[in-house]
Structure formats: structure tokens, C-alpha cells
Recover the amino acids of this structure.
């Protein structure tokens, strides 16, 4: 057992307890109260919390009539907001740039993993993104919900959760596995800002509702929390050295925190004024307010997801540790040879 996997002073001893038997500690490489056990429990709880929030978002925004009408009001509000309409009209090539940026960030993730020779971590990150995309596709196809109609009156599949948003958030959070610990905050923060911008554009262009983007962020958080919990169970995590906050991390995490707090606060404040009734026509001023509320909630959720994962992994190093001892000289076949000239009488 590694030194950092020993129980803390005053913590629970590695004796037999509920769920922590001696054979489990031998197989999992951890003891009750060890560093790996604490990280595993922490990430497992984060995964369950993200799944619970995803379930609440699905029940409130997809299964209820009020939630569906709010999503329709958000889509209608993008057409009534002159600033959004002018922005989309003046930048028609943003959709192609968004697809190109997804490809470039994916190549960056692969390049970082290959250059740093973190092949296992790269495979785990890409596998987690693929698993999140598969889960999103299964939810879109098989989760119960209403049938949506396009402008021509044809039925279209639900966009809950958004596939591009899952890919963008997954690539951003996947940087936690391939970048060094000292650069993790800056790298993931920049990736999260990029993912938030892509989510905002997908809502403004009418391709997805805010609930689709929010669900994508929560799904990715649950997937990566489960991955880190699995790594902790296998003893693949270790404590990171205590360092102060470098300036480059503050330059990224402070704007991310402002977006998270401001977006969630403004969205919650506007939500009470823009929830439509279950029946009846929508008020004339409601779609524009609903669009701004949806943009704020989606941006705040995307930034908050990145900050939560960074906070959970603040002093956790996911890089493989080096061997504590290295033999540089050949070992003699018999390190303690018998000396027949000296006998004990």
C-alpha cells in the first residue's frame, strides 16, 4: 500500500467494517479512511448528485407541459430579440466554425495525451466522452417524452440531451486527465468557456433548448465523476502537492466563477417571471425574457459543472506516479556470503 493510501491520523482504522473487509482492501489497494477511499466516496457522491439533478431537469423540462412551453418560448424569443437576430445575421459562418472547433479541440486532447505519453489517461478520457454520447443517444431515442414538430410539421427526435453539447463539455473536462496538475485549472477553465459559448450559440440558433444543454453538462459531470471514482478504486490517484494559486489559473477561473454565479442567479431571478401557464397563448413579452433566462441558466450550469469538477480534484493528481525505488546496479546472487574464516565458537 502506498504511503498516501494509509489512514489519516485519527481516522477510521483499516479493520473490518461495513463494506470494507480485508479482502476488499487487498483487491482494491485501499483501506478504510485512505486517500483513495476518500476520493472514491467523494466522486461517487458527486456522480449520484449529477444524476439526480439530470433526473430533475428531465422531469421538469420534458415531462411537464409548463417546462415544454418554456422551452418553446425560449426558441421563439430568439426571433423577437433584435440583438440575437442581428448577431446571427452578421455571422452566418459560426455554425461551421463551431464544428471545426470541436474537431480542433479533439485533436488537441489527443495530441496532449500522446506527447505526454499518457495513453491510458487519454483512452479513459475518450472512452468517457464516447460513453456520455452513447447515453445521450439512448436518452434521446428511448426516454419517454413528447414528439416535437419542425417548421414543416414533421416529427423530429428530441434533443434532450444535446449531442454537440455533450461532446464539447466532454472534451473540456477530458483535459483533466491529460494536462499536468499545475495547468489543470487554466486548461479546463478555457475549455469550459469554449463549451459555454458553443452551448449559447446552439440555443440562439434554435438547434437546441436550454434544457438540452443543461442536461448535457450534468451528464458529462456524472460520467467523469464515475471515471475518477473508478480510478480511485484501482488506486490510480495520489495527492497533489500544495501550491498557491498561479496567476494563469485566476485569470480563467475568476471569469468562470462569475459566469456560474451570475448565470444561475440571473436565470433563477428571471425564471419566476417567464414561466408560462400550462394552457393559453403566450404573452407578447414572455419569449424574449424566456430566451435570456434560458441562456443564463445554460451558461451558469456549464461553468458551474467545470468548477465543481475542479474543486473535487483540487488536490488530486491523476498522473501515474513514478516508482519509489529504482535499482541501478546489479544485485549479487548472494548478498550475504558465508565467511568460513570467521566462526563463532
Amino acid at each position: 500500500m502506498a504511503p498516501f493510501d494509509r489512514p489519516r491520523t485519527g481516522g477510521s482504522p483499516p479493520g473490518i467494517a461495513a463494506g470494507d473487509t480485508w479482502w476488499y482492501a487487498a483487491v482494491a489497494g485501499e483501506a478504510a479512511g485512505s486517500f483513495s477511499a476518500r476520493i472514491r466516496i467523494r466522486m461517487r457522491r458527486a456522480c449520484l448528485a449529477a444524476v439526480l439533478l439530470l433526473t430533475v431537469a428531465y422531469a421538469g423540462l420534458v415531462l411537464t407541459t409548463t417546462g415544454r412551453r418554456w422551452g418553446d418560448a425560449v426558441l421563439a424569443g430568439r426571433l423577437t430579440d433584435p440583438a440575437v437576430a442581428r448577431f446571427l445575421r452578421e455571422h452566418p459562418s459560426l455554425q461551421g466554425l463551431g464544428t471545426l472547433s470541436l474537431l480542433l479541440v479533439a485533436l488537441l486532447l489527443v495530441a496532449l495525451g500522446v506527447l505526454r505519453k499518457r495513453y491510458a489517461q487519454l483512452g479513459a478520457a475518450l472512452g468517457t466522452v464516447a460513453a456520455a454520447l452513447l447515453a445521450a443517444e439512448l436518452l434521446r431515442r428511448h426516454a419517454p417524452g413528447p414528439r416535437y414538430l419542425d417548421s414543416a410539421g414533421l416529427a423530429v427526435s428530441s434533443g434532450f440531451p444535446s449531442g454537440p453539447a455533450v461532446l464539447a463539455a466532454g472534451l473540456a473536462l477530458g483535459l483533466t486527465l491529460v494536462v499536468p496538475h499545475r495547468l489543470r485549472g487554466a486548461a479546463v477553465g478555457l475549455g469550459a468557456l469554449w463549451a459555454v459559448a458553443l452551448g449559447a450559440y446552439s440555443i440562439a440558433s434554435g438547434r437546441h433548448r436550454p434544457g438540452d444543454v443543461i442536461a448535457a453538462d450534468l451528464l458529462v459531470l456524472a460520467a467523469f465523476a464515475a471515471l475518477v471514482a473508478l480510478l480511485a478504486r484501482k488506486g490510480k490517484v495520489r495527492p497533489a502537492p500544495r501550491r498557491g494559486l498561479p496567476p494563469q489559473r485566476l485569470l480563467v477561473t475568476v471569469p468562470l466563477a462569475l459566469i456560474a454565479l451570475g448565470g444561475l442567479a440571473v436565470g433563477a431571478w428571471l425564471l419566476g417571471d417567464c414561466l408560462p401557464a400550462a394552457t393559453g397563448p403566450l404573452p407578447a413579452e414572455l419569449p424574449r425574457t424566456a430566451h435570456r433566462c434560458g441562456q443564463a441558466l445554460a451558461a451558469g450550469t456549464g461553468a458551474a459543472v467545470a468548477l465543481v469538477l475542479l474543486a473535487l480534484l483540487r488536490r488530486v493528481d491523476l498522473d501515474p506516479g513514478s516508482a519509489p525505488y529504482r535499482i541501478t546496479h546489479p544485485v549479487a546472487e548472494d548478498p550475504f556470503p558465508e565467511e568460513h574464516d570467521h566462526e563463532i565458537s
Remarks:
- The chain is about 65% helix and 0% strand.
- The beta strands are 148-149, 155-156, 238-239, 316-317.
